[in-house]
Amino acid sequence: MRIGELAAVAGVTSRTVRHYHRVGLLPEPIRRSNGYRQYDLRAAVELVRIRRLTELGLSLDEVADVLADDEGRELHEVLAALDADLERQQESIRLRRERLAGLLEQARDGTLPAEGPVSAELAELFGAMARTSSERPGPEPAMAAKERELFALLEGSSTDASGGWLAGLVGSLGSDPEALHRAYDLYTRMDELAGAGTDDPRVAEVAGAVVELMPQDVIDSMAGVEEFDVDEGDGFVGAYFADLAPAQAEAVRQAIRLVQERVR
Amino acid sequence: MRIGELAAVAGVTSRTVRHYHRVGLLPEPIRRSNGYRQYDLRAAVELVRIRRLTELGLSLDEVADVLADDEGRELHEVLAALDADLERQQESIRLRRERLAGLLEQARDGTLPAEGPVSAELAELFGAMARTSSERPGPEPAMAAKERELFALLEGSSTDASGGWLAGLVGSLGSDPEALHRAYDLYTRMDELAGAGTDDPRVAEVAGAVVELMPQDVIDSMAGVEEFDVDEGDGFVGAYFADLAPAQAEAVRQAIRLVQERVR
DNA sequence: CTTGACCTTGTCGTGACGTCAAGGTTTCTA
DNA sequence: TAGAAACCTTGACGTCACGACAAGGTCAAG
């Protein structure tokens, strides 16, 4: 047999057979005078055996191990390990499809937020925010959009923030239309701080109102907030404040300090 | 933020962020005077968005498409396509695990043949052959082992042989201990032909006995065997005959010719 | 004599990064 | 104040199982 026929018998390509030669999985056969490889039946038997193992999902290295060893025990172990691995893959795919199903449903409802695929709870809140905004006159405050981005970011990030209080805040805002209206009032007042100085009297007013809006249980769940350094200049926190106008940043800083005092 | 902190926020490595820069998925940020990349909040938002999509299983190209397009429809399509793909993967893994379960059971029974993982039917036949061999005096005929290799090869190959008659032959031999004993008589007689000439009178005798052993329905299922050229020198068939002693090959050739006449 | 179907070796590409290497910078600690 | 630890930079190679291509040589049929 020449390489093409051998490959056809085993249901692979010639390239695959040559690859097996290079990695030492299949021995190079003798050559005819013209340089063509000349295979015997033994080669076909070996190749089919290799193919059956790879079709199960074994890597070429694993196949080499199985074929090298005095088979009987090694094969069983490898198969068991492979099965365990496939089980993990199944589970991982199942979870992803579960998430996907939720997102696809949101897409059908038209409630899939532009911020990207987020959790169902966050999508619920974003939907409520869209409804709230449409019930109020004028365009949506820019601060509301920023808040959505921040929430989406925190939820997908591995900071401790996502631990507990974020979920609580999202839940209470998402389920309480009146609270959302009050939040939108605050977003509007925040927007108005855009051009103000950090010593503007409205800064402290807004900071106080923000804390007033937070339910007690959310504040309780923020234990550990005391270690939060609002004056950190360089890192993630600094980048967050740099994203705001000076007076807005100052208002947020003051609000956080108020929460820190409350928790203490 | 520097790259390490950005990466930590999103739960990826710095290398991943740099990779996204190179493929254009995330824009290169400004540099500090020392050459370090300096990220703002916007970058974190984008990176987390990218990560959420990749975690669902989208490729970086698909993520780029989703982020580039005026999102809302594209995303839905990509997610639906992804879900369909995951479903296919699930099915494929399910099938492989099903095969694996059979093999693992064989391994527990100790009936996993050394020829490698084969179908349950073939494993059954090989087990029956092992039992038959142990019931008879002397070592197993070499021809029996060759036949096993050939069956394993044909079953895993994409030749038309595996179409119908092989399964019939395997089934009838595997379920009929007496037939297997007759087959072992023939294997022994085949072995005895190893050093004989092609004109030995035993050649024709064995060929006739082989055909006698084949059930009529198996012969019936071999329609098309007429086109089989037993004198083909070079290909798979030639390699098969080359694997046998001359008189053995001649006996097989004559047996095939007898079947061809029967079918006609 | 050409056409087409084979064969040869060698090299690059795939996807999403991991892992050095060989340096420069910043920050913490003794 | 020195040095170590922990950052950062670019660049290049490795992963895995081949597919695709290049640039040829070989062989049988029309």
UniProtKB/TrEMBL annotation, chains A, B:
GO terms for molecular function: DNA binding; DNA-binding transcription factor activity. Pfam families: MerR_1. Residues 1-69 form the HTH merR-type domain. InterPro entries: DNA-bd_dom_put_sf, MerR-type_HTH_dom, MerR_fam. Keywords: DNA-binding. SUPFAM superfamilies: Putative DNA-binding domain. The lineage of its organism: Bacteria, Bacillati, Actinomycetota, Actinomycetes, Jiangellales. Gene3D superfamilies: 1.10.1660.10. It comes from Haloactinopolyspora alba. CDD domains: HTH_MerR-like. This is DNA-binding transcriptional MerR regulator. PANTHER family: HTH MERR-TYPE DOMAIN-CONTAINING PROTEIN, REDOX-CYCLING DRUG-SENSING TRANSCRIPTIONAL ACTIVATOR SOXR.
